[in-house]
Amino acid sequence: MSKSGSDSITANRDTAGAFSISSGVVAPRDGTGNIRRATWVGIFIAAALPLVAPFLPFVGPPPDSGVHITNVSGLTTQFTVDSAALGHFVANVERDIAFKWVRSIALVFLVVLWERKPIASIGLKRASWRDGLVVIGGYVAVFAIGHLLDLALPKRVPSEVQLATMLFPYPLRVAMVLTAAVTEEIESRGYLIERLEAITGSTSFAGAIAFVVFLLQHATSWGIARAVRTALWTTALVALYLWRRNLPACISMHLLADGTALLAIPKIT
Question: In total, how many domains does the chain have?
Answer without folding.
Answer: 1
